[in-house]
User: Which sequence fits this backbone?
């Protein structure tokens, strides 16, 4: 087991803790297709870690491995110093990993409030009988969790739409509701799959602010995949660069930016 | 002008969570319940009980049950008739095996037995979805009807193959058998409807309901936020089958008095209740009532108008009635695919703004 006490201090003075999750030699194959080839990296407590790379590099597959949706063909996933065996996605959720999706995966038939409340399902324990009568534990629990959820609603500034069915909302707000649902679970590790995709500049600014604030305020560790390089370079503490399923760079943004392999992958290399 | 939220401030989450947040709705609801319990029983006669109220109430329970499964949890079922038969036969066996047992207990236990059977037939839902699940439940429908026809133990070896409800009392009043009064039948069913509708509402607005709806709207995302699909789907099958079993037990013991499985609980019944749920509104408690009312009342109304008012011959009226009901179902679904509940919701939204829509 790796030493959990080591850490580092970021340029803006945030203390980053020890290793929260470690990916060791992860390989993921679908039949003959190799999506991820022997990748290792770690995610430290409290940091914002970006995964970037050209289309088809295997970023989303990597996120799916972290969230437990895919079981890696080879390699080990260590979380909080314990090796994670093959698990069902809902079991991983209970360990404190939450995520948002590239193509929004909200529950369209439910209101914003109900959607966010689903983020707290793993914490709600009242029995069926109590729920059926809406009395005792069920009602107390409902109100207690509602208070937490309202705090997140305030934080993300979506008070005015809390009773609107999600299906009626515009794209940018849906992204925000999805973030709220992930936050409601009070995750230790939050995975964001292209949180800014399809947004205009203003929406991107809002979303960046929310990501920085929630990292700062709740101490949530964040792993994000993003194509907007400006956003990635500004937000993240360390960046993993992937190309064709391999890791071609890993380190602080400015280091990655000057890495010759990364520049080649993004701009292409002259073949002679 | 009466229908306003303005000035009606909610200061606690408890108040905000109530079923009828608007005062006018609340008053209307209490009035309806009070009238149903305290006024209707004094005026009800055999015709109204047998043609309108009792079938409406029993179908409302069945529709609530199917709505929980299909409307809230998104699992299509065509086995409703078969599950009602399970409730009916379980009730019959309990009534004949334990003559001293309270009728309420009989009905509830029949519901529990059906819940068990429902969970069993719900197991395939973990692997298959949509139309394929519908076919699997269709198999349940045919299997259950066949079983109750084939095994004489279920109908106590009676020569006709029918089951006949023995006379049972509740609180000193006959609730089954020939001597039952119209108001006793009505009140007995109404009590079940009242409690079960309340429970359905509570379940669907809380944790369990959110799990069901999450699975319905996007099962993969639901699993990733921590919903266990196994327990969630099976709990939907269990609760839904409980309701349908109670409906089946009441349908046989209180309403029909005697039943033959293929005739009373055949595939037509499954479709009738599915239509109620679709026309009423998937995923709505009110919709279950509206759908049941629509499909129970409409034929009665048409018959009265065609035969009573217009004086048409009965056989012609019966055929025309089928055609009109069919046409109306289609028209309704074209005008409002989300059912009567959605129509009602839109009306309420307009009412809130009326008479100044801007």
Assistant:
């Amino acid at each position: 087991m790796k030493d959990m006490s080591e850490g580092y201090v970021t340029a803006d003075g945030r203390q980053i803790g020890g290793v929260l999750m470690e990916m060791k030699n992860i390989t993921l194959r679908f039949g003959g297709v190799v999506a991820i080839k022997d990748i290792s990296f770690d995610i430290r407590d409290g940091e914002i870690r970006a995964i970037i790379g050209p289309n088809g590099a295997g970023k989303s597959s990597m996120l799916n491995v972290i969230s437990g949706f895919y079981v890696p063909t080879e390699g080990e996933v260590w979380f909080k110093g314990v090796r994670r065996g093959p698990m069902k996605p809902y079991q991983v959720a209970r360990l404190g990993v939450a995520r948002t999706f590239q193509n929004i995966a909200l529950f369209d038939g439910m209101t914003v409030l109900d959607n966010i409340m689903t983020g707290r399902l793993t914490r709600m324990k009242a029995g069926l009988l109590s729920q059926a009568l809406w009395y005792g534990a069920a009602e107390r629990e409902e109100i207690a969790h509602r208070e937490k959820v309202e705090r997140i609603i305030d934080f993300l500034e979506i008070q005015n739409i809390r009773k609107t069915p999600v299906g009626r909302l515009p794209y940018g707000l849906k992204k925000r509701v999805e973030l709220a649902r992930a936050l409601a679970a009070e995750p230790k590790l939050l995975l964001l799959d292209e949180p800014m995709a399809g947004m205009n500049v203003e929406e991107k600014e809002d979303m960046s602010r929310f990501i920085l604030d929630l990292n700062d305020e709740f101490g949530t560790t964040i792993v994000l995949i993003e194509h907007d390089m400006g956003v990635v370079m500004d937000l993240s503490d360390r960046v993993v660069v992937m190309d064709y399923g391999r890791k071609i760079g890993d380190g602080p943004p400015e280091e990655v930016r000057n890495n010759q392999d990364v520049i080649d992958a993004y701009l292409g290399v002259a073949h002679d | 002008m009466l229908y306003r939220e303005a000035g009606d401030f909610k200061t606690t989450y408890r108040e905000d969570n109530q079923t009828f947040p608007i005062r006018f709705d609340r008053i209307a609801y209490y009035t309806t319940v009070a009238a149903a319990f305290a006024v209707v029983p004094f005026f009800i006669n055999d015709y109204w009980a047998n043609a309108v109220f009792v079938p409406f109430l029993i179908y409302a329970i069945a529709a609530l049950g199917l709505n929980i499964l299909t409307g809230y949890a998104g699992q299509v079922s065509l086995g409703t008739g078969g599950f009602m038969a399970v409730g009916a036969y379980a009730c019959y066996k309990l009534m004949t095996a334990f003559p001293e047992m309270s009728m309420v207990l009989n009905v509830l236990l029949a519901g529990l037995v059906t819940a068990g059977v429902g969970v069993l037939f719900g197991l395939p839902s973990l692997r298959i979805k949509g139309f394929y699940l519908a076919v699997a439940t269709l198999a349940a429908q045919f299997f259950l009807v066949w079983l109750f026809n084939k095994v004489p133990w279920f109908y106590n070896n009676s020569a006709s193959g029918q089951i006949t409800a023995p006379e049972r009392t509740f609180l000193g009043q006959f609730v089954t058998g020939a001597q039952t009064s119209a108001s006793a039948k009505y009140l007995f069913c109404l009590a079940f409807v009242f409690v079960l509708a309340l429970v359905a509402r509570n379940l669907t607005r809380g944790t369990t309901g959110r799990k069901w709806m999450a699975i319905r709207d996007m099962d993969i995302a639901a699993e990733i936020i921590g919903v266990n699909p196994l327990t969630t789907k099976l709990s939907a099958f269990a609760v839904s089958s409980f309701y349908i079993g109670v409906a089946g037990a009441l349908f046989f013991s209180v309403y029909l008095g005697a039943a033959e499985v293929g005739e009373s609980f055949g595939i037509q019944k499954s479709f009738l209740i599915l239509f109620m749920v679709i026309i009423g509104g998937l995923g709505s408690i009110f919709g279950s009532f509206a759908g049941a009312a629509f499909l129970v009342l409409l034929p009665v109304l048409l018959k009265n108008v065609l035969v009573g008012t217009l004086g048409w011959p009965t056989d012609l009226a019966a055929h025309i009635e089928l055609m009109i009901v069919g046409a109306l179902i289609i028209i309704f679904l074209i005008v409002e695919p989300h059912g009567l509940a959605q129509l009602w919701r839109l009306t309420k939204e307009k009412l809130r703004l009326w008479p100044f829509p801007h």
User: Anything to note?
Assistant: Residues 112-180 of chain A form one domain.
